Model the fold of this input.
Amino acid sequence: MVSFSISKNSSAESSKLTYGVLIDQEQDGQFSAVVPGLSDYKSLGVTEDEAVSKLQQILQERLKNSKIVTLEVESTSNEDPWENIFGMYKDNPLFDEVLAEIEAERAKLDAKMEEYYKQLDEQG
Done:
């Protein structure tokens, strides 16, 4: 993932925004550049640099007369949403068995991932 910065200057303030960019090579050989989460802003280029440069121009144009603000919203409830389920299975005779099965499944998945990473290391 490539990062680039966009500088937005105005007489009142100066700010810099940094975006991660996902670059893919298309079937036709061109490169596409898109900001994850902002899929409306996508560009194509013959090279990765050209695609990123075009995307940067698109975003700078969009931000020319815009601004990004932080919005804070107060929670309407002080209650922890998980509080109602804490300990609900403490007296269930199968609870320990379920935990053991979860642990065994996690161990299998960890072993698979370890093997996958080992294969990647051998290929690279």
About this structure: Residues 8-12 have pLDDT under 50 and may be disordered. The chain has two helices and four strands. The radius of gyration is 24 Å. The helical segments are 48-63, 95-123.
